[in-house]
């Protein structure tokens, strides 16, 4: 009997690789600033660039960066990249105390576009997501608060094409929450990305189920991702809710290689044990698409000021590892290696990472050498880990393919990655999808679920970056 390529690959296990190691190359690279970071190849030269806070840095040669210009009025706390006008290049939405939209001119420059009045006073998280299934990227903008004075509204901006947006939904006065990070993923595999909002002040988190229409339904409680509800309290602005967690940022990713997107909920927590600790939540799949808490034996040591998480396969062994920042003096941001079966091991010290008091946490292969590098705490850490093959997949389609999911089968493991516009609180990792393959070399089959439900499969050579386009 002749075996197919996929069947042959399924017989091959992934081998172990060396523990990760990193080198601080901040000074040599020319990057600076500890604000939230959003990676993207905005000038389409094959090298990934980065927005840090309100400053754009262009990647010159895979080793050095220089500042690039943004239009007046563009730039605030952070930003997120996505092709909102479907012209094939990446546009930029910036948020914080003010909002801006920069449309890419395809020549390395941008033009500021007009936005409607957004009923969000202060935002710490926003993401691109197609909310009405029309092939155009919309915006979900989370609203934060002013301590002991006001809690601000969230809003959804619908894309009408050619860089024009209208505010089509905003949270109710009783439903508003102190939003921090916003991240989207098609967790139920129905062809559209759903929106997870990380809320602070011991508030329940929100999971908006995308049906292609507004308003969306919050299914966080029934799916097991709202937090651990306790007694109800009243809060600033007349809102009431059950005590849950101080979530600053969360991250979607397949943590157990079963082909489904799981969720890491990044809870800051003071010492009292009624406050939710960080949660590893396993997606149990069809038919209910609920989440199971796997945190108890995961091995994450408690620190009070956990803040912004970002997932990546740092050692090219095929599974997603966890980087998690902290924001109090005395606490330390950490790198945990995924050892399988929902067990994680702290390798921060041996990896050479030393970052404290930061919300900056995002991954990209800035030097193009086939492994993922880390930007955190105002430092760029180059990945120098030995061993481990890879394949990197750049997906091209409407809306820069945000919401698309790609899978590679290796042994009994289904390596799954998604194109996303945000992770943690206000950060964005590179949109090119990275799959570690251990010591496997040869062809792999990449299966892609595109937004809208179309499926494609491609045989690609490992050890390189390939571009796959929606058909």
Features:
471 residues, mainly beta, four-stranded antiparallel sheet
Q: What does this protein look like?
A:
The longest helix is centred in the N-terminal third of the chain and has 6 residues. Helix content is 4%, strand content 42%. The two termini are 32 Å apart. It contains four helices and 39 strands. It is mainly β and 471 residues long. The strands form eleven sheets. Strands 1-32-31-30 form a four-stranded antiparallel beta sheet.
What's the layout of helices and strands?
Blueprint: H1 5-10, E1 22-24, H2 26-29, E2 37-40, E3 49-52, E4 55-59, E5 65-68, E6 78-82, E7 91-95, E8 100-104, E9 110-113, E10 125-129, E11 138-142, E12 145-146, E13 150-151, E14 155-161, E15 164-170, E16 179-185, E17 194-199, E18 206-209, E19 217-218, H3 220-223, E20 232-235, E21 239-242, E22 246-253, E23 262-268, E24 279-283, E25 291-293, E26 306-312, E27 321-326, E28 334-338, E29 344-346, H4 348-351, E30 361-364, E31 373-376, E32 379-383, E33 389-396, E34 405-410, E35 413-418, E36 433-438, E37 443-449, E38 455-461, E39 465-469
Task: Please summarize what this structure is.
With about 475 residues, this protein is mainly beta.
Strand order within the widest beta sheet: 1-32-31-30
Largest sheet: 4 strands, antiparallel
As an assembly, this protein is single chain
How far from one another are the termini? Answer: 32 Å
Beta-sheet strand percentage? 35-45%
Query: Mean pLDDT score, rounded?
Result: 95
- Rg, nearest Å: 21 Å
Estimated helix fraction? under 10%
How large is the count of helical segments? 4
Number of strands: 39
Shape: globular
The helix-and-strand class reads mainly beta
Poorly predicted runs are 1-13
